[in-house]
Write a structure and sequence with these properties.
The chain is an alpha+beta fold. 42% of the residues lie in helices and 15% in strands. The chain has 18 helices and 16 strands. The strands form 5 sheets. Strands 1, 2, 3, 4, 7, 14 and 15 form a 7-stranded mixed beta sheet that branches. Strands 11-8-12 form a 3-stranded antiparallel beta sheet. Helix 10 crosses helix 17.
């Protein structure tokens, strides 16, 4: 009897551990937590899981629905409780704590060469922490200008293209020309101002975070970092070409005003095109323009969506095989279409469906070569720096409550005090 209870206890304990399970007959079950939320994206992910299961009877994948709103805390709880999913969908800027904490598997020896070579090194850098790679970057989203096509056409301004974009001074001049009579050339939705500012500032050579020979990071807000925030500040506070009322808004909040003819342009993530296509009034003409270019051209920071494997998964090799299946070129293109984003894979980017002028797809794919790792990608302490220092500082600067010198002081002096606590 005692031996029987020991066997039962062992089985129960085994069932409580993290990672995939092995069912009767030796079949493995892997849990894949997806953060897809748009109907097209959810359908694409579920279809690929179904296709995998139909052709891999010994390794079943169970689709688990997650949420972007709570993913970080939910994953942390599941890691600490030994209940993490085997395959984890997240974003590269959320991986640092999990990677350094030992919760994610290093993928360098798990992934096939096909997948490694198909995704450019600049994308792999977004998921590289220390000496390891802890996620496969597969979807990315540049920030673009969504414009009222009829308004721009009738104004006679030069229409930018990826080959001949506006410079930041030209962009400011154009927004002044488009403004007047209660209408604005641009509306900046900056409820979350930090990532937008930092990522766009790569075009002007702005890095903000500088890593020394000792590996420690310091904040330096210098001339290249000033261009983008100064442009926005002047549009709102001097030129009257951007309303202050949208500074605390999210991207979706600006769409009614955009459709109503109040704003000529709105800087938004590439995936917002789906909302615009679905919600735009009948006959409303819109187009996608590249963000302005600076000294470093159209360079822009991104934090791609990623697929990772839990360190505690008992079936890491099989999980890597599933990721490789999900990210075959034709499948990566399907996922990109479902999310209205760009794939990182060079072969998927060649898909004709992603190069059509319709809905601005061709403009997006033309920007793909200019996307690189977001400046804050591997900076430990960045979330606290962003929440406690940078967000309020940028918000006050854009609203005109503080000047550029005070913004610099807060980002550097206050910001470096925060980062120093993570680098001892």
């Amino acid at each position: 009897m005692r031996a029987r209870w020991l066997v039962v206890l062992v089985l129960l304990l085994a069932g409580c551990t993290g990672g995939g399970t092995t069912a009767d007959g030796g079949r493995i079950t892997l849990r894949f937590q997806s953060l897809a939320w748009q109907d097209e994206s959810v359908a694409a992910n579920k279809a690929l899981v179904k296709e995998w299961n139909a052709t891999h009877p010994d390794v079943k994948v169970q689709y688990v629905q997650g949420s972007w709103d709570s993913v970080h805390d939910q994953l942390l709880t599941s890691f600490e409780g030994g209940e993490a999913p085997d395959i984890i969908h997240d974003a590269s800027d959320d991986l640092a704590d999990f990677a350094y904490g030992g919760y994610l598997a290093d993928l360098r020896e798990l992934l096939p060469e096909r997948l490694k070579s198909d995704i450019p090194q600049r994308s792999w850098e977004t998921a590289t922490f220390g000496d390891g790679v802890y996620g496969v970057p597969f979807l990315q989203e540049p920030r673009v200008l969504i414009a009222n096509a009829k308004w721009l056409r009738e104004s006679g301004v030069r229409i930018p293209t990826p080959e001949h974009p506006w410079s930041w001074p030209e962009f400011r001049s154009v927004t002044r020309e488009l403004s007047g009579d209660g209408k604005y050339g641009v509306a900046w939705p900056l409820k979350e101002p930090v990532s937008a500012t930092l990522n766009l500032s790569l075009s002007t050579g702005g890095q903000l975070f500088h890593r020394g020979a000792d590996g420690k990071v310091t904040v330096r807000f210098e001339a290249p970092e000033e261009v983008v925030p100064r442009t926005i500040h002047e549009q709102v506070n001097s030129d009257d070409s951007a309303p202050s009322s949208t500074l605390g808004s999210g991207g979706s909040d600006t769409l009614p005003g955009f459709f109503g003819g109040r704003y000529a342009m709105v800087p938004l993530g590439f995936s917002y095109r789906q909302q615009i296509e679905q919600q735009a009034p009948k006959g409303f003409e819109w187009q996608v323009l590249p963000a302005p270019a600076g000294a470093d051209g159209l360079t822009q920071g991104v934090s791609p969506q990623t697929l990772s494997i839990a360190e505690d998964s008992r079936h890491q090799a099989q999980a890597a095989e599933f990721i490789d299946f999900m990210l075959r070129p034709e499948n990566m293109a399907r996922l990109a279409l479902g999310d209205w984003m760009l794939p990182t894979g060079t072969q998927a980017l060649m898909s004709p469906s992603l190069r059509t002028p319709r809905d601005g797809w061709a403009t997006g794919t033309a920007l793909a070569a200019h996307l690189s790792s977001a400046p804050a990608q591997s900076v430990r302490g960045y979330p606290e720096w962003k929440d406690k220092v940078a967000t309020p500082a940028f918000q006050e600067y854009y609203s005109g409550a503080i000047d550029l010198a005070e913004l610099r002081k807060r980002l550097e002096e206050d910001g470096n005090l925060v980062l120093a606590r993570y680098q001892r």
